[in-house]
Amino acid sequence: MITYPKSYSIPPGLDDSSKYRILQKAEFALTAPIPHITDAVCPRSPGTIHDYCSNGDYWWPDPDSADGLPYIRRDGESNPGNFNKHRMILRRMRTCAVNLAYAYVMTREERFAQRSVLILKEFFLDEATNMNPNLSYAQAIPGICTGRGIGIIDTIHLADIPFVIQALCDSPAMTDFIYQGLKKWFSRYLGWMLTDENGIEEMNTDNNHSVCFFMQAAVFSLFTDNEMIAGFCREHFKNVLLKQMNTDGSFPRELARTKPYNYSIFIVDNLVTICHVLSTPEDVLWNYEDSEGRSIRKAIDFLFPYVIDKSRWPYSQDIAHFDAFPARTSFLLFAGCRLGIPELIRLYESLPFESEDEEARRNAAIRQPLLWM
Prior knowledge:
mainly alpha; 4 strands
């Protein structure tokens, strides 16, 4: 079971405007159609209607090929013609469930809990509409492959769901049958991640993809009471993931991308989430430092001047969406509270409640970090 860290200095909470926005969105989710993975069919996928499918973002038809195949890569340039419907459905499901759960926490009105539980039940459990617990066909490249390990990054938004479930546990709507069913789904998905060829490939990458893999594995292992995998994630954070960092706190693989600012924030955001959920009184990852001085604090210290004042960014500007960052991202709140950096909390509170930019929304794994606290 996920436990909440006790050493945080929690900020006062949502202001009236933010509370109003969440309640507005929760009211909308009460009557909006419930998203199902079966609502859209990927035309090229060999999977069933229950299998998640997506295309790689930066892959485009080859202009020199009669049928456009095989696709060619243009790093940092998202192809709007790629199949993206399952990703949007999954995110919409997560967002509706989160907003309803948060509205329930604020108001204790059962109608919000009932709708949130129904969304989870239909998306994960109901035979006619559920999503299979695998990502075998994620980030496929037309003409090259039907799925890749890199696609596991598509489910970073599912990390919110265990906290939604926990927030709903005291509602009569969250029956033991539904709770155990959801727990089983995430246990099966975690098992697939850890044993499938695609999962193993993603786990062993040396950039933000492995960090996102372990962020998800950390949350899912805690939710499913799999302490062995949680321990594996802790050790991997200390002995492998931190080695992606230079000793100055930067991440060279991310700085080498065509969107170095975006990716630098992205990798730190997910590393901070790992620290947040996996730290225990006996093993405080926030305080861990390896033999060469790498630590999450070092990463925060490197990034800090540039999220506070982006004009100081000394590297290349991102090829696209540079103006969309920094956005309101959970690491600002988690690290600001845990490491005692009030400027990060103030920045979080000053940024728009929700970014209008699709890239910023896609890259924020956590919709409502206060549910995690």
